[in-house]
Design a protein that fits this description.
Helix content: 25-40%
Distance between the termini: 49 Å
Radius of gyration: 21 Å
Structural class: alpha/beta
Oligomer: single chain
Strand order of the largest sheet: 1-7-6-5-2-3-4
Number of strands: 13
């Protein structure tokens, strides 16, 4: 859907004097030099051209109501960034509802939302009984935060309703699927939380350490930033500057409580299965963990995080067959984690699994992490028959391994028998 006010921005990083990032994300280009080496001081007329462009967009939509769409299984980076956008938009009398279609299953995410009182709602995307909840008539547009629509079941709903894409703010690889009025996509930035923090630094929302909402939001942003930079081990200069800015406002006790969330028994069981079922090929650890309940879906990336720490392993891929009884949906869901600098998770996953019939990739990634979701389709359900369920899993397990080994060990990628 083409916007009447297209404005898209490049990543701010440059490698040579006078050069700009080679990726052009759309219709109008704002060229910026290297990321600033010091904190930007708040200014009513914003010094950062990206923040100024966002301010102008928000001003044009003053008084509107917008739907902020997250990926189906939002992580701390997405959750905190969406909340920050909502608070910024309120300064322009814009009401935002934050929505997602999947589930919050990671313990840290559940704790983050519960302890901060973060305002968000899950939209049920299937079933006639949930149709009223999906009414989009009250919104004047939608916003994509930390995603570009390819990981959300809500995108077809808002597109069918004719809602315009108002803004996309993300740090993942450009998907080239949606034209929005304002686009700030920075593939070389480690976290969307860093982008939103830079908006705060530019003065779009002056933080007040005596305001409990601001303190909780800053704490959430710090958690999101830490999460997507592997506890700052993968952080770049702009991430450290953002963290330094947020450190003035965060509640350290709250952050520590979130980080100390305990793993559930279900998560520990999945990690145990991933250890038992793993096979190692050329320093890749590949493990299928069988059937998993929809609400335990986040156990898969946690298992991948664990397997990649094994000696002589640089990349771990964990996947399972996720079943949602309420929605009658089954998906093969997988996560990739890597410490190999030369491995691009986005390229690897896209090459391994390709696209669906509509031309959308089954997965993608960012620096050192990626994920994929493959619908089971016609073979969904009937899992009460143990023999059939085992047979179905064996078929999908073998097919996933075949596709992965085609890249991992191309000279001998055919599986013979069981491992």
């Amino acid at each position: 859907m083409q916007s009447p006010h297209p404005l898209e921005l490049t990543d701010p990083v440059t490698v040579e004097t006078g050069s700009h990032h080679p990726e052009v994300n759309g219709n109008a280009l704002v060229k910026t030099e290297a990321a600033p080496s010091e904190l930007v001081k708040p200014d009513p007329r914003l010094s950062d051209p990206r923040a100024e462009a966002l301010r102008q967009m928000l001003e044009r939509h003053r008084g509107n109501r917008q739907l902020v769409i997250l990926q189906d299984f939002p992580d701390p980076d997405a959750l905190s960034s969406a909340w920050t956008y909502k608070l910024i938009a309120e300064k322009f009398d814009i009401q935002c509802d934050i929505a997602y279609a999947g589930a919050l299953s990671h313990q840290e995410n559940i704790t983050l939302v519960r302890l901060t009182g973060m305002p968000l709602v899950r939209w049920n995307v299937q079933g006639a009984k949930n149709k009223d909840q999906r009414d989009c008539s009250c919104y004047q547009g939608y916003i994509l935060i930390d995603n570009q629509g390819t990981t959300s079941q809500l995108l077809p709903i808002v597109q069918e309703a004719g809602l315009p894409a108002i803004a996309i703010i993300d740090h993942h690889t450009l998907q080239e699927t949606i034209q929005a009025e304002f686009t700030d996509i920075r593939p070389t930035t480690r976290a969307t939380a860093t982008i939103l923090t830079q908006y705060l630094q530019s003065g779009l929302l002056p933080l007040d350490s005596s305001n409990p909402i601001h303190v909780k939001c800053a704490t959430a942003l710090m958690h999101g930033l830490r999460s997507d930079t592997d506890c700052l081990k993968q952080a770049k200069e702009e991430d450290f500057l953002a963290a330094a800015f947020l450190s003035r406002y965060i509640d350290y006790q709250l952050l520590n409580t979130i980080l100390q969330s305990h793993r559930s028994k279900q998560v520990m069981d999945v990690i145990e299965r991933s250890l038992k079922n793993r096979s190692i090929h050329n320093n890749f650890s590949i493990s299928g963990v069988g059937y998993i309940r929809y609400e335990d879906r986040d156990a898969i990336p946690q298992a991948a995080d664990f397997l990649v720490t094994e000696e002589n392993v640089h990349t771990a891929v964990v996947y399972g067959l996720v079943h949602d009884e309420d929605e009658e949906v089954e998906l093969i869901i997988g996560s990739l984690r890597t410490t190999k600098i030369t491995l691009d998770p986005d390229e690897f996953i896209k090459e391994a699994f390709g696209k669906d019939s509509q031309g959308r990739f089954f997965g993608g990634g960012r620096s050192q992490a990626g994920g994929f979701e493959i619908p089971v389709g016609f073979l969904s359900g009937l899992n009460e028959n143990a023999e059939y369920a085992k047979l179905k899993w064996n078929v999908y397990d073998t097919q996933i391994k075949q596709k992965l080994l085609h890249l991992v060990n191309p000279k001998n990628n055919v599986l013979h028998g069981t491992e």
